[in-house]
Description:
The complex is a heterodimer of chains A (510) and B (126).
Chain A: H1 3-27, H2 31-36, H3 43-54, H4 57-70, H5 76-91, H6 93-98, H7 104-112, H8 115-148, H9 154-203, H10 228-245, H11 247-253, H12 259-276, H13 280-290, H14 303-311, H15 314-360, H16 366-387, H17 393-417, H18 423-446, H19 452-459, H20 462-479, H21 488-496
Helix pairs in contact in A: 1-9, 1-15, 3-9, 3-12, 4-13, 4-15, 4-17, 5-10, 5-12, 7-8, 8-9, 8-15, 8-16, 8-17, 8-18, 9-13, 9-15, 9-16, 10-17, 10-20, 11-15, 13-14, 14-15, 15-16, 17-18, 17-20, 18-19, 18-20
Chain B: H1 28-33, H2 37-74, E1 82-83, E2 86-87, H3 88-124
Antiparallel strand pairs in B: 1-2
Amino acid sequence: MNHPLSLAAVVLVCLTTLAVGGLGLRLSRRTSDFYVAGRTVSPRLNASAIGGEYLSAASFLGVAGLVYGAGVDMLWLPVGYTLGYLVLLVMVAAPMRRSGAYTLPDFAEARLGSRAIRLVSSVLVVAIGWLYLVPQFQGASLTLTLVTGAPSWVGGFVVMVVIAAAVGAGGMRSITFVQAVQYWVKLTALAVPAFVLLLLWFRDGHPAPVVPPDWNVPLTPTGPGDHPTYRTASTVLALCLGTMGLPHVLVRYYTNPDGVGARRTTVTVIALLGTFYLLPPVYGMLGRVAFPVLPEGVRSDSVVLRLPGDLVGGLGGDLLTAMLAGGAFAAFLSTASGLAMSVTGVLDQEVLRPRLARFTGGDAPGVRGFRYAAVAAVVIPYVLSRVTEPLGVATTVGLAFAVAAATFAPLIILGVWWRRLSTTGAMAGLLVGGVATTASLGTTMARDDLGGWPAALLANPALWAVPLAFAVAVVVSLATPGRIPASTTRTLVRLHTPERVRLARSRIRD
Amino acid sequence: MSTSPSPPERVRVTSSRRGAVPHRARPAAREIDEQTELGDVYLDGLMRAQLRLSVAILALMVVGLAALPVVLALVPATRSTTLFGIPFPWVVLGVAVYPAAWVLARWYTRQSERIESDFAEVVDEP
């Protein structure tokens, strides 16, 4: 298509990321700078950063592609992505900040006092992080191939190198700035072409979109044996509860100055996400105007990028495409860097730092282990993205949400609100939720000959797996009252008591 | 009768409360900090108030989400109604949800901050 302009936009976004990351390099000195930006991020900056981090390739390209294909029913996805923050706000935002932990495994260990739970949580963080990183790399490859004709390995490779550099350089402090900038880059890059395209569409006498039947009616079956109500309810539940269980989302809560700040941040995040999600349906609708049928072998994920070339053409079309390509790259970079950040944190703490300390007798500076971990955190999912067949970008992301909803959501919610959660119960819930979701998603991917209810239940396991995980955690906890951690009350005091109440013993210093 | 009866031995009479800690010198915050039974009662009260608020918000959210399919099923005319030229389901799922979520979030934040400031006032008083 239009090589030079789009290439320039992508290069510009990558350079900005590295430059702002480099700024963090000069500011990051302490360990807490690397992990949680020194915990001094203001609600407004933090909300932009969360928005920037959260709006991934799935939101930037995937939602519009799905709306193009299946219509209004796919709007449940952005609704779920946004309501996930409402659930997070009312259930865990302030307590999570007050827990004083750096990562999800830190929280699990502090609350339940068990190394085993820490280990299982760490494995889950890495697994969910990588599951979420794979579609980001695939989306990057798709975009770069489409707009510049580069070979398909290049896009993901560029993203991998840039985020490894940005995370390794400045850790959380630099990532916070990078992501705050990228929210606004993404919003502008999606909004400006949308307005121009809408304007042109009106000028042409707004021709009606050519839509398949039921495109405008929610909860309609996509084929025989489809159960739209179950599918939708399960997806929305997975998104609502999965958000709090995504490692790159929760780690941002530790960067707020206090619990009240964490709540205010979340309110702003909901406003920012709501603003952004007004745009993808516009592309879905205009896509229906421009391409009644997609050519053979074209993925619907690419509808956003193909629209300007088709509707505008010429230099204007090239400019808008370049803008969208740059915005898409900002989406891959910011989400991937947030994910890489949390996976890096876990790999560093669990695997590398203990090893490095043993080899060097504690001589190696802590930052070096962090940087090795950053490389490992991105190389492995990049390799995975090359060897696995791409599903739709939003579909793969949905899998990560389902696993997070059935594992971390019960652990966190019960951990924050229920005194009688025992170590054994929490572990049982984690394992049952994790095994149930990964097994059913694995079965779905391996076998496509299932029909009717078995297929529906396995493809969208959240609606049964999440209650199951909760129930197992509760029943096992009630059966093992002796395994309730002795520190439970102290932890709950810390999680729920407002910061202004002076607690000499229960509070831990940041 | 020559010897006058010896006067009863003097007894020192003091207020029984002299060595006692004056009332309310111990703020409830310390009870909570030291995890006494009284502190547990305070903590339970705080957690229950917060959880009740959270569950109320979640219930509103679920009712709001479920309302759309219910309305579409009960009043089939709404499926083809348009607002400003946009079909009704698109207006609800594509636009109206977001301000509604924001209003709920803001309301929650205000209420939970109020619960916390009431709590802090009670327990921090010496």
